[in-house]
Amino acid sequence: MDKNMDASIKNISKGLVIIGSLLLVTACSSGGGYQELPSAKAQPSLTTDIDNYNYLIGPQDNLEIFVWGNPEISGVFQVRPDGKLSTSLVDDLEASGKTPTELAREIESYLSEYVRDPIVTVIVQGFVGPFSEQVRVIGEAAQPQAISYREHMTLLDVMISVGGLTEFANGNGANLIRVVNGKQVKYSIRLDDLVKEGEIAANVDILPGDIVIIPEAWF
């Protein structure tokens, strides 16, 4: 082999090694898929007494705030994605996780600096609620989605909301994930027996924050 050609090949090889090293360093410094994110924290429901469930306000809820005798500071306001609310006279008030009554009393406290003996009513429009209170259904449901929790909701109510199972679902292999004492606990549920066979004994109570996972059947 010609010496000049041999030298050229060596130089090209060295150049490729240098370029590869630079690309690797760049990828590592910018993440490049080499760093693994930590798992999401198990968020317990904000509802502690399920027998006396009260709706909790969440981000993107629309709130009608009526101040008696003061229509100029009343109106409809949306809770921001950060869970806070700004009204005509109140800025950055934490609204998420509170009941409408709790929020009304807090707004009254703030308004008392400007209005004599304010009386406030908070009415929720377009219920969304905090993520910690929503029930999520993923996998082989006809319409996988997050559902706003309703008092005394059961598994059957959830399945009706998501349109039932797909033809590929392994309903009796489904699981329900629930946060108990700060830890995620997995429970087996029998959706085929409940939905297809009408076995009411397979129906169970749903709690705010539950996650229903429906796997695909292996035929």
Structural description of this entry:
The strands form 3 sheets. This protein has a 5-stranded mixed sheet with strand order 7-6-10-8-9, with no helix packed on it. A 3-stranded antiparallel sheet has the order 2-1-5, with helices on one face. It has a two-stranded antiparallel sheet with strand order 3-4. It is elongated and about 70 Å long. It is an alpha+beta fold and 219 residues long. It is built from 4 helices and 10 strands. The longest helix is centred in the N-terminal third of the chain and has 27 residues, at 3-29. Strand 6 (135-139) and strand 7 form a beta hairpin. Among the domains are: 57-125, wza like domain (wza like fold, 2-Layer Sandwich), CATH 3.30.1950; 132-214, Outer membrane lipoprotein wza fold like (Roll), CATH 3.10.560. It has helices at residues 3-29, 100-111, 155-161, 191-196, and strands at residues 62-67, 75-78, 84-85, 93-94, 120-125, 135-139, 145-147, 175-180, 183-188, 211-214. The mean pLDDT is 86.
Question: What's the CATH architecture of the domain at 132-214?
Answer: Roll
Gross morphology is: elongated
Enumerate the spans where pLDDT stays under 50 for 5 or more consecutive residues.
none
The level of helicity is: 10-25%
The CATH first-level class of the domain at 132-214 comes to: Alpha Beta
Radius of gyration: 27 Å
Overall pLDDT: 86
Order of helices and strands: HEEEEHEEEHEEHE
Main beta sheet strand tally, sense and closure: 5 strands, mixed
How many E-type strands? Answer: 10
Distance between the termini: 61 Å
Full CATH superfamily name of the domain at 132-214 = Outer membrane lipoprotein wza domain like
CATH topology of the domain at 132-214: Outer membrane lipoprotein wza fold like
Instruction: Give the number of helices.
Output: 4
Which structural category fits the helices and strands? alpha+beta
Strand percentage:
15-25%
Q: Record the strand order, biggest sheet.
A: 7-6-10-8-9
